[in-house]
Design goal:
Residues 1-37 are annotated as: Disordered. This is PE domain-containing protein. By secondary structure, the protein is mainly α. It has a domain at 41-132: Helix Hairpins (Orthogonal Bundle). It is built from three helices and no strands. It has helices at residues 27-30, 43-71, 80-134. The longest helix is centred in the C-terminal third of the chain and has 55 residues, at 80-134. The two termini are 46 Å apart.
Length: 139
């Protein structure tokens, strides 16, 4: 047995880490290929996570302006060393900009996935609420 692996004797199952309300667990909407223990988020948590990713994406967007400034660096002098140093700094700024754009997109994609999971959650919750009311119950 190594690292995070656990061995279970015949017939013994790993502990379940949470239930799924309204159908499939929320993470299966985010990653339908997920294996292992399941968990679910409530609506507030899905909303909060989505907002966190959006806020982070906005910060990456703001930082892109700084990276663009670095990518436009000019040599302080006309000598070879100054020009070579400025070129190296510009290349670094360009690489930083590419990375920040990728990180922004990743965060926006994650926010979108959590909003989609929230939509699925809401539909399932509404469906189950309707079924409970039809049976004469209330929530």
């Amino acid at each position: 047995m190594t690292g995070d692996q656990q061995e279970f004797s015949a017939g013994r199952q790993p502990p379940r880490t949470g239930g799924a309300y309204g159908g499939r667990p929320a993470e299966s909407f985010v990653n339908p290929l997920a294996h292992g223990p399941r968990y679910s988020y409530d609506k507030k948590t899905l909303t909060d996570i989505s907002k966190e990713f959006e806020d982070l994406a906005n910060e990456f967007r703001e930082d892109q302006q700084y990276a663009q400034n670095i990518a436009r660096a000019k040599a302080p002098g006309l000598d070879y060393a100054s020009e070579n140093n400025a070129e190296t700094i510009r290349d670094s700024g360009k690489a930083l900009l590419v990375s920040l754009v990728q990180q922004e997109q990743y965060c926006r994609d994650q926010a979108k996935k959590y909003r989609a999971a929230l939509g699925e959650y809401t539909v399932a919750e509404d469906t189950h609420s309707t079924e409970v009311r039809k049976a004469g119950g209330s929530l």
